[in-house]
Amino acid sequence: MNNPVPPTNIEAEESILGGILLDPFAIGRVIDLLTPEAFYITAHATIYRAALDLYRQDKPTELFSVKAWLSDQKLLKQVGGEAKLIQLLERTVSAVNIDHLASLVVDKYKRRELIAAGHDLVKLGHDTTTELESVFDQSEQKIFNLTTNKQDQFKPKVIGDCLAAVFAKISQGSEPAYPTGLGDLDTLIGGLIKQDLIIVAARASMGKTWLACHLTNHIATTQNKPVVFFSAEMSSEQLTKRLLSMHSGIDSHRLIHNTIYADEYETLKQALGTLGELLIIIDDTPAYALTPAKICSVLRKIRHERGELGLVVLDYIQKLGDRAAGNRAQAVGKFSGAFKDIAKEFDVPFVALAQINRGVESQGNKRPGMADIKDSGDIEQDMDLGLLLYRDEYYNSDSSEPGVMEIIVSKNRNGSVGTCKVGFDPSVGRFSSLNQK
Ligand SMILES: Nc1ncnc2c1ncn2[C@@H]1O[C@H](COP(=O)(O)OP(=O)(O)OP(=O)(O)O)[C@@H](O)[C@H]1O
Fold first, then answer.
1. Atom 28 of ligand 1 has which residue's CA nearest to it?
2. Nearest C-alpha to atom 8 of ligand 1 is from which residue?
3. Lower CB count within 10 Å: N or C terminus of the chain?
4. What are the SF4 helicase domain coordinates in residue numbering (predicted)?
5. What are the two backbone dihedrals, phi and then psi, of residue 411, each rounded to the nearest 5 degrees?
């Protein structure tokens, strides 16, 4: 196979360096974007490194200083001597376009990185001594590292910059949180806050998925932003039927079994219309294939095509990863850490459902606590908000509180803890605020 010339933009590299030699303030405009590694020509990277070092020492980056620095480091000859620096300077008229030129150089650098990652993937593919799953994981990670701009997004900021951003948000009245539509819960938690990892935990069949459907539907309806539901538990068909049941009020079991009554068709059609308007995106990749890298790449694509995300939901955390692995708590902890990072990176609330240990059944008071979360690992530290669900009628058929779900706010980094009660109809997954009845 012939080796094509790697993507480069030598002219832009030269103009950037010329601009830096010409204008003492120019480097400050590209320093966050451009690293020395981004230059294809080694001599260019060395000259840029010299300028960076001078800039960090608060020294000018003009010809004489750069030449002196290179000479002191015995690098002047290597980069082509003083003649090279003069040539760069003479070819440049101004540094006015330096930011744009930097983005062109970075673009080519990332393409070269992609090609290098491609070669690594080929090597990984040939390495039959490594388990296929690990090969896939490593491959995804390589691409993930390339496509995330975490360094750019999370670079250190001086407090003045933080204050400016904070003030802009306050004066725009920008919403840091999305109401859940359940008044009492919103009073306690102040809505679902962007960048928070929210864990909704309960025993099987308590209503976690229904609550996730409610939040999905409410945020998609009120915020008009994409809500992405990763359903490792149910197929997209089952989940769609759940959402359709919420909208139509038609019993979910009958929808699941495709046995609706003739007089329900009209209602069904209306529900199809309203639900079809919402930007709810279901990803039912099976649990074994659903890695944080995969979640990120799906979210990145959706954000690119549809704009800022409103909510991410995952059903459910213990279903992911190698379930036969020895240390499940560690494995689950790895996921919760990754979900917190995703919430931050995408500036979105991330709701992850979680199972509760069976042990809670043997307690006198069957209301779960944080310690009851299965394979809890680091979940407790990673989460910003912990919601534990409890229904008395789940345990007592003659419960004095039928149709009521308790939402126990057991951890809340941004507000109070406590319990609120909401109305819940499990046949159609509808939730209501009891105080507003
Ligand atoms: N059509 C229906 N009529 C009555 N109850 C229903 C109906 N559909 C679902 N349910 C009830 O809703 C509850 C299931 O809710 P959901 O699936 O949200 O629970 P979950 O906590 O996510 O459970 P799991 O972890 O098992 O998935 C169960 O108690 C089930 O009996």
1. 205
2. 427
3. N
4. 171-437
5. -140, 140
Q: Who contacts 143 (Cβ-Cβ below 8 Å, separation ≥6)? A: 117, 293, 297
* Spatial CA neighbour of 153 closest among 342, 333, 413: 342
ipTM of this predicted structure:
0.94
Q: Residues for the chain: how many in total?
A: 437
| Residues with a CB atom less than 6 Å from ligand 1 | 202, 204-210, 233, 251-253, 426-427
Atom of ligand 1 nearest to the CA of 394: 29
Q: DSSP of 93-114, one letter per residue?
A: --STTHHHHHHHHHHHHHHHHH
Separation of CA 253 and ligand 1 centre (Å):
10
- Kindly give the confidence (pLDDT) of every residue in the chain, 437 residues in length, as a single tens digit, with 9 standing for 90 and above: 556 789 999 999 999 999 999 998 899 888 878 999 999 999 999 999 999 889 888 889 999 999 999 999 999 999 999 999 999 999 888 888 999 999 999 999 999 999 999 999 999 999 999 888 788 878 877 887 777 655 555 667 778 777 877 887 787 777 778 999 998 999 999 999 999 999 999 999 999 999 999 999 999 999 999 999 999 989 999 999 999 999 999 999 999 999 989 899 999 999 999 999 999 999 998 888 888 878 887 888 888 788 899 999 999 888 887 666 666 777 777 888 899 999 998 999 999 999 998 888 787 788 888 888 877 778 888 999 999 999 999 988 888 889 999 999 999 998 889 999 999 999 999 999 887 54
Q: Would you list the DSSP string of 355-408? A: EB-GGGGGSSS----GGGBTT-TTHHHH-SEEEEEE-HHHH-TT-SSTTEEEEE
> How far, in Å, is the centroid of ligand 1 from the Cα of 209?
8
- CA atoms of 337 and 340, how far apart (whole Å): 5
**Nearest residue by C-alpha to atom 11 in ligand 1:** 426
Shortest CA distance to 368 belongs to which of 417, 408, 422? 408
Domains and their CATH numbers in the chain:
10-100 (1.10.860.10), 175-436 (3.40.50.300)
Cα–Cα distances (Å) from 94 to 16, 28, 91, in that order, read: 10, 15, 9
Atom 25 of ligand 1, nearest CA residue: 204
Contact 116, 109 (CB under 8 A): no
pTM of the model: 0.73
Is the CA virtual torsion 132, 136, 139, 141 positive or negative? negative
The alpha carbons of the chain give a radius of gyration, in whole angstroms, of: 28
Relative to the CA of 315, which ligand 1 atom is closest?
A: 22
